[in-house]
Amino acid sequence: MQQRTIGDRTVSAIGLGGMPMSIEGRPDAERSIATIHAALDAGVTLIDTADAYHRDTGEVGHNEELIARALREYGAGDDVLIATKGGHLRPGDGTWTRNGDPEYLKRAAKESARRLGVDAIGLYQFHRPDPEVPYADSVGAIRDLLDEGVILMAGISNADVAQIDEAREVLGGRLVSVQNQFSPAFRSSQGELEHCAELGIAFLPWSPLGGIKNAKDLAGRHGAFQEVADEVGASVYQVTLAWELALAPVVVPIPGASRPESIRDSAGATELVLTAEQVARLSA
User: Fold this and answer.
1) For residues 173 and 43, what is the distance between their CA atoms, to the nearest angstrom?
2) pLDDT, tens digit, for every residue of 155-169?
């Protein structure tokens, strides 16, 4: 599988987003674990999660624990990078809230490490800015976690260009990743993608296929992607991911999956080479 770099780690060019395996409509644990194992079999070495990926009250960290179990049962090695996040919460009623308090973030990271069964988290990301807390204060907690060795690499999520630059300053140049929403239907993070490319920071598109509810409508809503899929003999999902990979060498899409066949299909995108004309047509 094609590879990319996040900080000092080499990872697969396509990651696995774990959220669909833990929120509403989630499959049973056995199918979720089979999905994670299928990803590993396909060469995926980046798995994205968060403490907020759960459905019900009282099960914070459901996805982190699920991934940890799957990795143990598989016997996965140190080449698999687990990226988790803190600062976004789900009270259990389907809503999302934010907590960027530095002390909270430090506690949350240590709890995530415990659930993942690791001495230090490979990549920890501040999940979403909290309007009630100065951004520098929240990112300062991530800096402290780095300095203390609780985490090995630091990232941010749902950030704009100014916040990327602020995080880099607070972290002393140690920001390695930005995880923002980006897909054919959601391109407002194009500026952040390009900024990351200029800085050499990994850009991790979340919902790269348009999200759980919209991925199936890719062909209908974005006809050019189906046209190219027909031309190259691939699925429209593979073409979408291949297009994103072609935008910059720092892009590492993290499509969510809850079935083995879904992540196998996504992993195949790394073998698909689009022409410059096809990339331009899709970008237009």
Assistant:
1) 30
2) 999 999 999 999 999
Q: What share of the chain is helix, strand, coil (3-state, %, to 5)?
A: 45, 20, 40
What's the CA gap between 118 and 23, in Å, rounded?
24
User: What average pLDDT does this structure show over 196-208?
Assistant: 98
Q: 73-96 pLDDT, tens per residue? A: 999 999 999 999 999 999 877 789
Q: Which domains does the chain have, with CATH numbers?
A: 3-213+248-257 (3.20.20.100)
The catalytic site residues sit at 53
pTM of the model: 0.96
Phi, psi of 148 (to 5 degrees): -85, -10
Q: Which helix (H) or strand (E) holds 123?
A: strand 123-126
Separation of alpha carbons 251 and 70, rounded Å: 26
Closest to 189 (Cα-Cα) out of 204, 199, 172: 204
- HSE-CB at 138 with a 13 A cutoff on CA atoms is 29
Pure H helices in 42-155: 62-74, 102-116, 135-148
As given in the structure block, the two tokens for residue 73 are 């049962």
Q: Any bridge partners for residue 177, and if so which?
A: 155, 202
Q: Given a cut of 80, is residue 216 above it in pLDDT?
A: no
Kindly provide the b/e burial profile for residues 212-225, where b requires at least 16 CB atoms within 10 angstroms of the residue's own CB: beebeebbeebebb
